[in-house]
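To whoever picks this up:

The parser on our side crashed when reading a file containing two proteins. I've narrowed it down to the boundary between the first structure block and the second sequence. Both blocks are reproduced below exactly, byte for byte. First block:
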Amino acid sequence: MAMKALKQKQWLRMALYLAVVIGLSFGLYYLFRYLMTYFDIPTERVEEFASTAYLVVFGVTLVSNAAVFVPVALHVSVILTAAEYWDPVIVALVASVAGTLGEITAYYAGYWGKRIVHFENTPGYDRLVGWMQRYGPWGIFLVSLQPVLPVDVAGLLAGVSRLPLWKFLLPCWAGKFPKYLLLCYFGLVVWRLLPLPPL
């Protein structure tokens, strides 16, 4: 019975997290549209702000991914909004580079944390390190590609098992780029299905 209650709580937490991401995305999108109308910026002039938009995507994604085990949904909302107005491929590329660099904090938390906290006494430690040593970059790629598990887990395990940093960063980026690219194009489809007020 306790296990069922725990699963319900996890599903509720995931649903709440998804609702926050969707709410933030709609809020940012409508705010951006409102500001364009308020400042009387024609759609043709939006391209002039591309470099600033990519910088914002980079900064927000970097900070969101640097927060180890803190679910920060703001970067998803910023990516979705930016992909509507600017090149989705560049948005995904910028976000994936920033997200990968942000994961360095999880890597070093595992790398240096081993000296502070003795992970060896943690149940399942040997199994996790063995998994990372056996699958290493492929495991990191798969964790980075999927949208549910936090990539922080892969970063911590890569750091703990002393995987070279570049062997963590390359598969991490290789997983994040297609994930963000899919997110950008999925966002474009959703925005076009919504009954949005004209600018």
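<<boundary where parser fails>>
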Amino acid sequence: MKKKDYYDVLGINRNVSQDEIKLAYRKLARLYHPDIAENKTEAEHKFKEINEAYAVLSDSEKRAVYDQYGHAGLKGEAGFDFDFSDFGGLSDIFDMFFDFGRSTETRSRSRRGADLRYDLEITLEEAYQGIEKEIVLDVLEECEHCEGKGYPKGSKSVTCSVCSGSGQEKTVQYTPFGQIVRTHICQKCSGMGIILTQTCSHCKAKGRVYKKKKIKVTIPAGIDHGSKIRLSGEGEAGEKGGSSGDLYIFIYIKPHEIFQRKGNDIFSLEEIDFTQAALGDEIETLTLDGKTKLKIPSGTQNGANFKIKGKGMPSLRGHSRGDQYVNIIVKVPTKLSEKQKQLLKEFSAYGPEETDNKGFFNKVKNIFSF
């Protein structure tokens, strides 16, 4: 694919000054940096394109070659093959050309703490009512003895002889058109800029130690299986003054012996005997609120469903509630006495057109008690 003109990439004309090139680059790099852009893939491609254009146009010698020969002058025809992989990745390029609001010292020393995950199992009743749970974590916290610095108060230090206190090392790569300077964290002082003569004995100079931490988690009523709750700043402590990570609580709801949940609706089973199904009755059924009355109309068939309005789970996004659906199972007797068998034979003799004869069932209702 044909490369775009470097001036077009930066949105500038060919007569601009070096300051204007730098200003255009900073503006675009901030916009398309992969760490802040929503579309990471597109931003990374665009960011690399921007840096490639800036690396050439910001160097007066490379710019002169490009102005005369175009892209061909930078690869092969002018005896120069410019390989942007030499920069060591986008983050190195980004740090090389501009600060993005942070000092070199802060960038090399501080680091945000890691995010943590905790799986929390609760009951359906707890999800229905909402509850506050206390959890205990082993988490990296700032060392209180050295305040996260890694060395005791008043301890002496000497300036790092490798980086001269900057916390960064620079390596120079020479090319036919000048030099490319790469910057990375100093290996000798780990980016601190100083060499400590004494380190904290509690954290072994790391600035963080593992501690047991109690955290209260508020579980809202109506939460569903697989939901997650984010607790900002409750993750691992940052390094060298960096911000703490976050804690993510993943909710798992235990299977219930009686109820099943689908969305905000609750489903349950209720058994009745065949005389109740035929004659009708009022029974007690269990809900997540406790027991409630349920009217069974006469002629209820096996598998019938009855809705109890408002007895489902509360909604997380409002004041509405789901419903409870009670599925009816009509029990058929497996062992009958001789008297029960005789009564059923009498009932059968009435014929299909008279099967709703309540008078007959009222006679046998007390006999068929299961």
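After patching the parser it read the second block fine. The CA atoms of residues 275 and 365 lie 6 Å apart. The chain has five domains: 6-101, 112-146+204-255, 156-197, 256-332, 335-370.
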